[in-house]
Every structure is written in structure tokens, then in C-alpha cells.
């Protein structure tokens, strides 16, 4: 079936549908990862986006039940050069195409993804529409230009949980845990952590669990007063989609928690923490999305290979140097990738240490969070 991808700048690309039928709008972006398409599809941070894979062959190892970051795909649409219809992998349970159709996700192949990526790099991420039901160019352009801009959108309400819940899943697959983790200690839940779900990835929860944490996941608008009433050892601010400045309720809650408990933020959590501390964020031209981004740890001078997925960044010049110490920088474009408070047990990074592209270059951040909770805990850690 013919499908069309129309960009707001007037460029229209035709291809072949291999996902669900229908029509969807979103911000078209690109990801440079060679593998990991299932994790990308199910990452809630991609809510509202049509994701283009720069690697030319996608789907060759199929889909399995373990490599998901949420309950279902979260992307608005999926764009590839060539879809592999017949997967071959011992873990595969079904083809990528059938998986996308089952979850009503539109996908298009036979697109020149190199050209599309160059367009996005030159013009910036932009609105787009993907359709199999309306193939009229003028109609598609009219629709996409009426669709909402990513800037100003609060998308966390679309991906957050509806009520608090306990997370207890432990990933006991040997290759999923770094060698320093003792399996016998996985159940030794020493610290209680409240996880703000702005679109949290499951592997973040698995990593916290592997360090012996007991997790309570709460909605994005969960009141700070209710968090403090739970008296956790620490608070985690998750990744998520959309414009951080639009999530005003989260910023207000974080302000009330900053000087109360140890806090660790990742991705959107990093941006929200910066805003709560009086900083500013800005929209990147085409964002950082891939599994090979070099980040320098300014404290140790080590270079980490990181996984990234964000379209906004923190303006380091907006943070008060007397209170905030910059800890990480992106070596590709010099943008901020992490900071910590000079007095309070609060720190964050823009990238995803749980994704392990290094493979474990950044896992020390979880140990750092554990150490802060141990240092500042007011109750026994032998629970």
C-alpha cells in the first residue's frame, strides 16, 4: 500500500506502508542507532514524534517480549529505508511489521532516509504527516501546517501512569547485569525510592532494582507533599517527551523537594530539575538521538559512550555557578549533559546511563545515587 510522508516545509516523500493504515502527525526526527529499534519504538520519550532510522536495514532480528521500555510502542510513526520482512533471531517472537500493525503504529519504507536526515539536519526537526488514506499533496500540507508545534507541548500526561504502583520486576538475565552486581543481593531492598513517571523507561527501573532499591512509581503530577509523607530515601526524576517548560506542575513539585531528599534526574528529569533551580532550557535544532554520543565527565575527564534521546537542552549559562557545578558536556556540540548542586544531594544527566551502549560506561551514576541515599538516610539501611 502506498504511503506518503509530507513535511511542513513542502517536501513530500512517497513510499510503502508496512505498519497500520491511517494518518498521523508528529515531529519528524532521526535516530542514528544501528540496532535497538524495539527499545526506540517503546521509549515514551518519543511520544509525538515520527522517528526516522538512519541505518538502512531495519527489522532483521524481529521483535521479542523482553526488549521493550514500556507496555507498547510510543512513537507516532516510523520511517525506514528498507524493512526486513523475514526476521532471523533466536529471541524473535514476531516480525516488526506485524508488531506495529497490532499496536496501530504507522510505518513507511522505501524512503531515502539519508536525504531525509540531511533535510532535518539542515532545516531542523519539523512537523510532518504520515498517511495511507489521504494521498493528496495539498491536503496533506494543509493538515501538517495546522498541527501543533513540539515547543510548548506537555506530553507527559499522555505517557505517565494513572496512579502510584510498586515496581518489583528483577531482570535476572546474566547479560543484563554488570559483573559487579551480586545476584544474591538483588532482593536486598535497602533503599526506598519514589520514581516520578514522566515517561519512565523500564530499564531505569530495572537498574534501580538491581542496586537493591524498593520503588514506588508515581504520576507526573503527584504532589510533593504526598511524596514527603512517604518518607523515601531518595527521589528519581525520569525521562519523558515534550517541552520541559510546559510541565509547570512538575517544576513546582521539584522545587518543594530539592532540599528535602537526594534527587537523581535523567533526560527530561534533568531539564525539569534545571528549571526548578531557576535555569532555562532551549530547543535543539535537530536533537540528539542515537547510541554513540561521546560525553566528557568534567570531574574525572573520562569519555563515556552514551545513548541519547532529547530535543531540548539546558542552558548552562542560566544556572547559578555559585550553586551549580557542571559535570558533563557533549563533545559533539558542547551542550550540557549533566550538573550537580554544590551543597545539596542533587544531580542529573541528560543522557541515558541505563541504556548501556558503552556498555557500562555510565552505570556509576546509579552507584552515586545509592551513595547519596546512604549518606543522607535518616533511617536504618538494613530493611
Structure characteristics:
383 residues, seven-stranded mixed beta barrel, Rossmann fold, 2 domains, globular, alpha/beta, ten-stranded mixed beta sheet, Glucose Oxidase, domain 1
Polypeptide structure, described:
This protein has helices at residues 37-42, 96-102, 113-123, 137-146, 156-159, 202-210, 224-229, 248-257, 268-276, 364-376; strands at 2-7, 12-17, 23-31, 49-53, 57-58, 77-79, 82-83, 106-109, 126-131, 165-167, 191-196, 213-218, 234-237, 263-266, 280-297, 303-315, 324-330, 336-341, 346-349. The chain is α/β, with parallel strands linked by helices and 383 residues long. It has two domains: 2-146, Glucose Oxidase, domain 1 (3-Layer(bba) Sandwich), CATH 3.50.30.20; 156-376, 3-Layer(aba) Sandwich (Rossmann fold), CATH 3.40.50.880. The strands form three sheets. Strands 10-12-11-13-14-19-18-17-15-16 form a ten-stranded mixed sheet, with helices on both faces. Helix 8 (248-257) packs across helix 9 (268-276). The longest helix is centred in the C-terminal third of the chain and has 13 residues, at 364-376. The termini are far apart.
Amino acid at each position: 500500500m502506498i504511503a506518503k510522508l509530507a513535511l511542513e516545509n513542502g517536501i513530500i516523500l512517497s513510499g510503502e506502508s508496512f505498519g497500520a493504515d491511517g494518518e498521523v502527525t508528529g515531529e519528524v526526527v532521526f535516530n542514528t542507532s544501528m540496532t535497538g529499534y524495539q527499545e526506540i519504538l517503546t521509549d515514551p520519550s518519543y511520544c509525538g514524534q515520527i522517528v526516522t532510522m538512519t541505518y538502512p536495514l531495519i527489522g532483521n532480528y524481529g521483535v521479542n517480549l523482553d526488549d521493550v521500555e514500556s507496555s507498547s510502542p510510543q512513537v507516532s510513526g516510523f520511517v525506514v529505508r528498507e524493512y526486513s520482512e523475514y526476521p532471523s533471531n533466536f529471541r524473535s517472537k514476531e516480525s516488526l511489521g506485524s508488531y506495529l500493525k497490532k499496536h496501530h503504529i504507522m510505518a513507511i519504507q522505501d524512503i531515502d532516509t539519508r536525504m531525509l536526515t540531511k533535510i532535518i539536519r539542515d532545516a531542523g526537526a519539523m512537523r510532518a504527516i504520515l498517511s495511507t488514506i489521504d494521498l493528496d499533496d495539498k491536503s496533506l500540507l494543509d493538515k501538517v501546517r495546522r498541527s501543533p508545534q513540539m515547543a510548548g507541548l506537555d506530553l507527559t500526561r499522555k505517557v505517565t501512569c494513572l496512579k502510584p504502583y510498586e515496581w518489583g520486576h528483577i531482570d535476572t538475565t546474566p547479560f543484563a547485569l554488570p559483573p559487579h552486581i551480586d545476584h544474591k543481593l538483588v532482593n536486598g531492598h535497602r533503599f526506598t525510592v519514589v520514581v516520578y513517571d514522566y515517561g519512565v523507561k523500564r530499564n531505569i527501573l530495572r537498574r534501580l532494582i538491581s542496586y537493591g532499591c524498593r520503588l514506588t512509581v508515581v504520576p507526573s503530577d503527584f504532589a510533593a507533599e504526598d511524596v514527603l509523607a512517604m518518607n523515601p530515601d531518595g527521589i528519581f526524576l525520569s525521562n519523558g517527551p515534550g517541552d520541559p517548560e510546559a510541565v509547570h506542575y512538575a517544576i513546582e513539585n521539584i522545587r518543594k523537594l530539592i532540599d528535602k531528599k537526594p534527587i537523581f534526574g535523567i533526560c527530561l528529569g534533568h531539564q525539569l530539575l534545571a528549571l526548578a533551580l531557576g535555569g532555562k532550557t532551549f530547543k535543539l535544532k535537530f536533537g540528539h538521538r542515537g547510541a554513540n554520543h561521546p560525553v566528557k565527565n568534567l570531574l574525572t575527564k573520562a569519555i563515556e559512550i552514551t545513548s541519547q534521546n532529547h530535543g531540548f537542552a539546558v542552558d548552562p549559562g542560566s544556572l547559578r555557578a555559585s550553586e551549580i557545578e557542571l559535570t558533563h558536556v557533549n563533545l559533539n556540540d558542547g551542550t550540557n549533559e549533566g550538573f550537580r548542586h554544590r551543597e545539596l544531594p542533587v544531580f542529573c544527566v541528560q543522557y541515558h546511563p541505563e541504556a548501556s551502549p558503552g556498555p557500562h560506561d555510565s552505570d556509576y551514576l546509579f552507584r552515586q545515587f545509592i551513595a547519596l541515599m546512604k549518606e543522607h538516610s535518616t533511617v536504618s539501611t538494613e530493611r
